[in-house]
Amino acid sequence: MVTKKPSIVIIGAGMAGLTAANKLYSATGFKDSFELCVVEGGTRIGGRINTSEFGGDRIEMGATWIHGIGGSPVHKIAQEIHALESDQPWECMDGVSEEPSQPTTIAEGGFELNPSVVDPVTTLFKKLMAYAQGKLVGDTAAGCEGFEEIDYYTKFAAKALKVSSTSNGGQEKLSVGSFLRQGLDAYWVSKKDQEELKGYGNWSRKLLQDGIFAMHENTQRTYTSAGDLLTLDYSAESEYRMFPGDEITIAKGYLSIIESLASVLPPGLVQLGRKVTRIEWQPESDEVSGMENGSATATRPVKLHFCDGSNMLADHVIVTVSLGVLKAGIREDSGMFNPPLPSFKSEAISRLGYGVVNKLFLQVEGNDCNNFPYLQMVFHRPDSEFRHKKIPWWMRRTASLCPIYSNSSVLLSWFAGKEALELESLQDDEIINGVSTTISSFLPQPHKLVNSNSHELCNGTANGVGNSHGSEVKVTKILKSKWATDPLFLGSYSYVAVGSSGDDLDIMAEPLPKLSTCKSAGSPPLQILFAGEATHRTHYSTTHGAYFSGLREAIRLLQHYQCIGV
Predict the structure, then answer these.
(1) Phi then psi for 551, rounded to 5 degrees?
(2) Cβ(445)–Cβ(388) below 8 Å
(3) Three-state SS for 459?
(4) What is the rounded distance in angstroms from the CA atom of residue 475 to the CA atom of residue 478?
(5) I want to staple 40 with a disulfide (CB 3.0 to 4.6 A). Which of 13, 87, 88, 99 is the partner?
(6) DSSP-assigned beta bridge partners for residue 457
(7) Could you please report the per-residue DSSP string of 391-409?
(8) 505 φ/ψ angles, rounded to the nearest 5 degrees
(9) CA distances from 272 to 35, 44, 60, 216, 341 (A)
(10) How far is 498 from 515, CA to CA, in rounded Å?
(11) What is the rounded distance in angstroms from the CA atom of residue 181 to the CA atom of residue 176?
């Protein structure tokens, strides 16, 4: 009797899935000993990596940055395949869009803000976030450059943590949003005798500080995908890890990394247009009580059903779909898993946060359109009587509008939460009108500072931002991402929500059935394995987190079969 080769099926041809496939297929002796295939529901590989073009420039509709080049596996691959240089212009090729050295910050109504107004609030926000991330705690702070400044802001952070923890019933229930606002309140108490600003129209000093702080909060929303920072868990922030070094984009596009991983796989191994609708598996009896086992055969315990009515048997399935798809898959009416996932797994899926972030690219024309500033926008509150009534609500939590590199005529803006969702439903002309109205409120008739040391302003256009840009800038074309309504993703990336923890990310990574009970229950082990950014405790929400997770599950299977060299 001929022994069947173990069959491994990977669901999803994104970073996690293709990393796992690459590792497995490249392992010594694997090709002769196993059957492997990758099934992808879409018509392309890459998942939430989707390099495209717009206005003659290479852009990213999804994953954009290598978050720190020191130790990043993505950066290492990019170097090896020479993807960090290109003759074609690419998004953020000069790094300006991530952290501009001289942003132009303008308050609604066209008031350009002096750095003396903006910088203290910006520093406060950055120090509060650094404190939340565990970077300014204990002796570490004392060894930092600029310790006196850090110490000054740390006292606001420490007070914010104390007040927030008390009012929220303990630090385990504390949100980043409430911590940040308590920090701002503490800052205001220390500055209660500040001189009032003059010449900013209806803007008071406190309103401006609140608006600048909110601008940074909105940027943080896009970093984390938490539509509301009040839902972002405080304690987990210090577990998240960044790689050291610069944050850069990939000249030849993020897709070049994906194509490199897939290049070792033979034609036909990756099957496109194969959307899985149901996964039948055989859990041990005590893990899903009262559930009958699926109809998978004893020889191959997992059976995959596809949208075209076909099916496939496997010994092991690595599920790399997004947390959004898993959240939809645990609903009672879904039937994605049969039997349903055990409660420890489904509850972790339910508790974790998963948000939507979308990018909006705009092609602009007009005199001097190639000198559009890196515009940071300070909005009145949505309920303010001073707000510009024609600026649409979905623009009001957008922090910036900037060229994708210096002198580009393509602008970029980021959206998160309900605003990002709204963007997906709008027609192009509605978006163009909304953005144009917003630009006209900020740039047409600037109130320019007389000099850098004065709070007095003058109305007019001499040397003003709007003199070059205002009505002369015309938005002619747009391109937007639509991650929330794409059924293959249902959002962008994960975050640790209040009520969840890093433990839930570890639970996400646990294979089924549970390893500890496989032998006693007589159930085949490692039937369903999980990979993807939402399964990595310290690098969730990133492409390198997805990479590490794919590697982890491939190694788990290779070690299970005692493959050499793992």
Answers:
(1) -65, -45
(2) no
(3) strand
(4) 8
(5) 13
(6) 449
(7) S-GGGTT--EEEESSTT-S
(8) -65, -35
(9) 18, 7, 21, 40, 26
(10) 29
(11) 9
Residue 371 CB burial class (10 angstroms; 0-12, 13-18, ≥19): middle
Contact 410, 52 (CB under 8 A): no
* Displacement of CA 118 from its chain's centroid (Å): 26
- How many other β-carbons are positioned within 10 Å of the β-carbon of residue 8? 25
The arrangement of strands across the sheet holding 337-338 comes to 311-314, 302-306, 276-280, 337-338
Contact of 37 with 262, CB cutoff 8 Å: no
Which has the closest alpha carbon to 65: 369, 394, 414, 475?
414
For residues 92 and 67, the answer to whether their CB atoms sit within 8 Å is: no
Residues in the chain: 566
Q: Which tokens go with 341?
A: 């996932």
Torsion angle in degrees (nearest 10) through CA of 29, 30, 31, 35? 150
pLDDT, tens digit only, all 566 positions of the chain:
456 899 999 999 999 999 999 999 999 888 889 999 999 999 999 999 999 999 999 999 999 999 999 999 999 999 999 999 999 889 898 875 555 567 999 999 999 999 999 999 999 999 999 999 998 765 444 444 444 555 777 888 887 888 877 666 666 689 999 999 999 999 999 988 888 888 899 999 999 999 999 999 999 999 999 999 999 999 999 999 989 999 999 999 999 999 999 999 999 999 999 999 999 999 864 444 333 444 444 589 999 999 999 999 999 999 999 999 999 999 988 999 999 999 999 999 999 999 999 999 999 987 667 788 999 999 999 999 999 999 999 999 999 999 999 889 999 999 999 999 999 999 999 999 999 999 999 986 544 443 333 443 433 332 333 434 444 689 999 999 999 999 999 999 999 999 999 999 999 999 999 876 665 557 899 999 999 999 999 999 999 999 999 999 999 999 999 875 55
Give the separation between CA 208 and CA 254, rounded to whole angstroms.
38
Beta bridge partner(s), residue 338 = 280
Rounded Cα gap, residues 152 and 156, in angstroms:
8
Q: Do strands 375-378 and 400-403 pair parallel, antiparallel, or not at all (unpaired)?
A: antiparallel
Q: Which residues pair with 360 in a beta bridge?
A: 413, 480
pTM for this structure? 0.90
Residue 7, strand partner residues: 35
Name the strands in the sheet holding 316-319, side by side, starting at the edge strand that comes first in the sequence: 270-271, 35-39, 7-11, 316-319, 528-530
Q: Which parts of 443-528 fold into alpha helices (H)?
A: 465-468, 502-509, 515-521
Strand, helix or coil for residue 462:
coil
Residue 87, number of CB atoms within 10 A of its CB: 6
